């Protein structure tokens, strides 16, 4: 016992205490390191990456590829939409039908004028003039709201009725 109370004994006890604290500290760190590696394996998977830097680089490349794909898809979609919008501009947008009695014979308004116009206010006016023993069909072209051939009052009414919603929206 006297050896422990001497200077050499006290140094030995202090060294043993320090070694014990270091051992406990290293065991705690080993447990924490094991947990960290387990968590890292859950994030990295078994893809062979050794650390988070490799994983981050792989993810960054994946996001760059995804961004490029999204941008290409947006460009293609924009081009398709432009094509669709151009095609829609040529479709019938405004239409109106006016029925009337062309010969004032009380025949039940069998004659009619039909205006079919696109978004540029271009199209045709079809007029069907019905009489007891005959029927005639007339077609007049409309370009930007103006007729090539003078319109009858009924045809003019059909064009104006067709374009009325466009005028109200403007």
Describe the structure.
By secondary structure, the protein is an alpha+beta fold. The protein has 3 domains: 1-46; 49-89; 94-169, no CATH class. It is built from 4 helices and 5 strands, in the order H-H-H-E-E-E-E-E-H. A 5-stranded antiparallel beta sheet has the order 1-2-3-4-5, with helices on one face. A hairpin with a 2-residue loop joins strand 4 (135-143) and strand 5. The protein is rod-shaped.
Count of DSSP-assigned helices: 4
Whole-number total of structural domains: 3
Label the overall shape: rod-shaped
| Secondary structural class | alpha+beta
Number of beta strands: 5
Please write the string of helix (H) and strand (E) elements: HHHEEEEEH
The level of helicity is: 55-70%
Strand content: 15-25%
How do the strands line up in the largest sheet? 1-2-3-4-5
Low-confidence stretches: none
Radius of gyration: 44 Å
Gap between N and C termini, in Å?
A: 109 Å
**Assembly status:** single chain
Average pLDDT for all residues: 87
- State the major sheet: 5 strands, antiparallel
Question: Which key terms come to mind for this protein?
Answer:
5 strands; 4 helices; rod-shaped; five-stranded antiparallel β-sheet; 170 residues; single chain; alpha+beta
